[in-house]
């Protein structure tokens, strides 16, 4: 199965074209805020260099977040458009799942992290199970232990300490394996986590934690073979916290909100009347 995988969840972007056995091409780069400008150009270049065309793919995988509001929507809208136009299956995978999957050889608990930008972190915890396929092939499968969280570094550290025994505790053994902390986190967050967890944690450096779309593709292929598939009409970004979009105060009387006018008072000027009429029309 030939899969195109897209990830523009943060200022780091990645895309890959691969099958279960072969990686035909992959780009991973610092995109900044140019997701919409650079993604399609890189996709075209990837297909040209691999000698494939859009019609050759059998499915599309996309990272659904959490992450950048605009970045997530660029990859998701592109993936949906391709799935619709080519009549191919679409598979959405959380960005935190991708971060954790890249550390799947770690035998203990994994905590995937992303900066939210308000001194909070997105987080999710996992264990990686080892399975054996035909011919002795080693296969890793992620098992998510927690919900997708949005908390301060201190809250996350406390949460990990509270849950560690129930997740990875072994009867008769007092010591617990350390958590592997990985993802896009700044120095301040790292220091806060380490100050509280100390020997209960290990960190993956930024280069080793870089998200790669080939990992996203492998997760998507596993889910596709398990019979999972996303509905392009229903698949939405995983924000954890909804974007800060406010309702217009000017239109509140028309939307069931509370009006500042006293009963029987007419609108005070033509501009308010025009706004109300425009709101009704739309």
- Our Rg estimate from Cα atoms comes to 23 Å
Shape: globular
Note poorly predicted spans: 246-263, 266-282
Q: What oligomeric state is this?
A: single chain
Number of strands: 11
Q: Could you describe the largest sheet, including whether it forms a barrel?
A: 6 strands, mixed
Helical run tally = 7
> Between the first and last Cα atoms, what is the distance in angstroms?
45 Å
SSE string: EEEHEHEHEEEEHEHEHH
Helicity level: 25-40%
Content-based structural category? alpha/beta
Strand content: 15-25%
**Average residue pLDDT:** 88
Structure explained in plain terms:
This protein has 282 residues and is an alpha/beta fold. Helix content is 33%, strand content 23%. It has helices at residues 35-50, 69-86, 95-101, 153-168, 187-197, 213-225, 270-281, and strands at residues 3-7, 12-18, 23-30, 59-63, 90-93, 110-115, 121-132, 138-144, 149-151, 179-184, 201-203. The strands form 2 sheets. Strands 6, 7, 8, 9, 10 and 11 form a 6-stranded mixed beta sheet that branches. Strands 3-2-1-4-5 form a 5-stranded mixed beta sheet, with helices on both faces.
């Amino acid at each position: 199965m030939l899969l195109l995988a897209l990830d523009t969840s943060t200022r780091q972007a990645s895309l890959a074209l691969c099958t279960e056995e072969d990686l035909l091409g992959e780009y991973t780069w610092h995109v900044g805020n140019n997701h919409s400008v650079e993604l399609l150009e890189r996709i075209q270049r990837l297909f040209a260099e691999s000698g494939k065309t859009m019609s050759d793919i059998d499915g599309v995988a996309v990272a659904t977040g959490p992450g950048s509001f605009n970045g997530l929507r660029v990859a998701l809208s592109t993936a949906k458009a391709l799935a619709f136009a080519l009549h191919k299956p679409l598979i959405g995978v959380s960005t935190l799942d991708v971060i954790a999957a890249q550390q799947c050889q770690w035998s203990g608990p994994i905590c995937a992290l992303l900066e939210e930008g308000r001194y909070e972190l997105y987080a999710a915890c996992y264990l990686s199970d080892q399975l054996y396929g035909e011919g002795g092939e080693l296969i890793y499968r992620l098992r998510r232990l927690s919900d997708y969280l949005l908390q301060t570094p201190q809250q996350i550290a406390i949460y990990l300490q509270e849950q560690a025994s129930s997740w990875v505790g072994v009867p008769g053994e007092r010591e617990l394996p350390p958590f592997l902390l990985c993802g896009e986190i700044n120095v301040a967050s790292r220091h806060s986590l380490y100050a509280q967890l100390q020997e209960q944690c290990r960190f993956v450096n930024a280069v080793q934690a870089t998200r790669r779309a080939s990992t996203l593709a492998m997760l998507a292929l596993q889910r596709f073979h398990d019979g999972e598939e996303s509905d392009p009409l229903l698949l939405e970004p995983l924000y954890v916290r909804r974007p800060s979009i406010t309702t217009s105060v000017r239109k509140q009387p028309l939307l069931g909100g509370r009006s500042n006018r006293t009963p029987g008072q007419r609108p005070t000027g033509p501009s308010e009347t025009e706004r109300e009429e425009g709101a009704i029309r739309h």
